[in-house]
Structure formats: C-alpha cells, structure tokens
Amino acid sequence: MPHPPRYDRLSVWLHWLMAALLLAQWALGWWMTGIAKDGTGARAWWFNLHKSLGLVLLALLALRLGWALLRPRVAALPQRPALQRLARGAHHALYALMLLVPLAGLLGSVFSGYPVRFFGLRLPLPGARWDAAKEWLSAAHHWSAWALLALVSLHVAAFAHHQFVLRERLLQRMA
Ligand code: HEM
Ligand code: HEM
Question: What is the rounded distance in angstroms from the CA atom of residue 106 to the CA atom of residue 113?
C-alpha cells in the first residue's frame, strides 16, 4: 500500500479527542484522590466519573488501534532512519501506555471490592476483594499514568521542535 503524506480524518479526530480527554482524565485522577471521605458521597461520585471516562477512553483506544491496523501507514518524516525508528517506537509506547493505564485502573477497581459503574450502570464484573492485588495494581496505575504524562511531554516537545525549529509543517499532517 502507498504511504499517504498525512493522517486521515478519523485518525485526526481520534488523536485530538483522546489527547483532550486523556489530559482531563489525568488531572481528574490526580485531584480526586485528595477528596475527603466525609460521608457525603462526593468522593465516590468523582471516582465513578473517572472510571466511566476511563472506560470511554479504553473503547476509543480499541477503535483507534483497530483503525491503525487497517489504514495504510502514514509516510515517515524525512529524517535519519534512526530518528524515524525512535519516533515510531515512541508512538508505539504511547499506544501501549494508553492501554496499560486504564487496564490497571479497571483491574484495580475490580479487586477493590466496590462495584464498577459506567455512568451509573453497574457493570457485571466479578467484585472480588483482594487487597494485595489492589495495592499492586494501584501502584501500576499510578506509575504508568506518570510514564504516560512524561512521554506525552516528550511527544509535544518533539512536535514543537519539528514545527517551530525545523519549520516542517507537522501540524498539517495531523489536521
Ligand atoms: C498538544 C498536544 C499534542 C500535539 C501538538 C500532538 C501532535 C501530534 C502530531 C503533529 C502527530 C503526527 C506526527 C507525524 O506527523 O508523524 C502526532 C502523532 C501521534 N500522537 Fe500526538 N500530539 C499531542 C498530544 C498527544 C497525546 C496526549 C497523545 C496520547 C498519548 C498523543 C499520541 C499520539 C500518537 C500515538 C501519535 C502517532 C499516531 C500514529 O502514527 O499512529 N498525542 N501527534
Ligand atoms: C487512560 C485513562 C486513565 C488515566 C490517564 C488515569 C489517571 C489516573 C491518575 C493520574 C490517578 C491518580 C493516581 C494516584 O495519585 O495514585 C488515577 C487514580 C485512579 N484511577 Fe485512573 N486513570 C485512567 C483510567 C482509569 C480507569 C479505566 C479506572 C477504573 C475503571 C480508573 C480508576 C482509578 C482509581 C480507582 C483511582 C484511585 C487510586 C487507586 O485506587 O488506584 N482509572 N487515575
């Protein structure tokens, strides 16, 4: 298949929609853990919103990965092969983390013993409380979320370098 010079419309929509939702989800996760357990249900409400949004992101990722496998691969930027491999590797790592972060969150929630609700609808998941697994998965969720944020920062820095220093019209490829 020939390599198109830019991303197709669906890929562009998914990229920007998920970028916005992921950053909001990250901030929400970080903020909500500081809400007091005061018996008003506020903490549970925000936790449920975070879980629901996380499941939406997981579904969007499934669509994105499926589509990425079906569509022709976009032409690499004209740069040294080593840098092309580095960019590809970084994009693969972003996909891997976009999968790992919500999976750890979901499994951790299953082992917390609380029911997982999707915008109010209780999901038919086995609600087995297992404290050791919950603790381990919470740590995995925490550290993979930080790794995702670090890699996204590098991604945006690489974008800015190509766009503003090398003056390649990178944004047109993802617009
Ligand atoms: C302001 C924030 C962002 C900017 C300016 C940006 C910009 C871009 C651009 C221009 C490309 C195309 C690269 C190319 O032409 O080869 C791209 C690709 C990509 N971006 Fe972003 N991005 C942003 C945020 C994010 C976030 C939050 C994620 C999620 C983790 C993300 C994940 C990806 C992935 C996985 C690709 C590769 C797509 C593929 O080839 O399958 N980006 N980004
Ligand atoms: C890509 C999507 C997601 C991102 C970026 C994200 C991000 C975060 C962040 C940054 C925290 C704070 C971590 C800490 O301070 O330890 C957090 C906490 C949490 N997240 Fe997520 N999350 C995502 C998806 C999910 C999903 C799908 C679930 C469950 C269905 C979930 C459940 C939780 C829970 C229960 C906490 C509280 C801390 C814990 O018990 O582990 N998250 N999340």
Answer: 12
Q: At 156, which amino acid appears?
A: V
Decide whether any atom of ligand 1 lies within 6 Å of the 91 Cβ: yes
Alpha-carbon distances, residue 40 vs 17, 31, 43, 115 (angstroms): 32, 17, 8, 18
When the pLDDT of each residue in the chain is averaged and rounded to a whole number, the result is: 97
CA of 105 to the centre of ligand 2 (A): 5
DSSP states of 58-106: HHHHHHHHHHHHHSPPPPPPSS-HHHHHHHHHHHHHHHHHHHHHHHHHH
**DSSP characters for 128-146?**
---HHHHHHHHHHHHHHHH
**pLDDT tens per residue across span 26-42:** 999 999 999 999 999 99
DSSP code, position 164: I
Query: What SS3 state is found at 56?
Result: helix
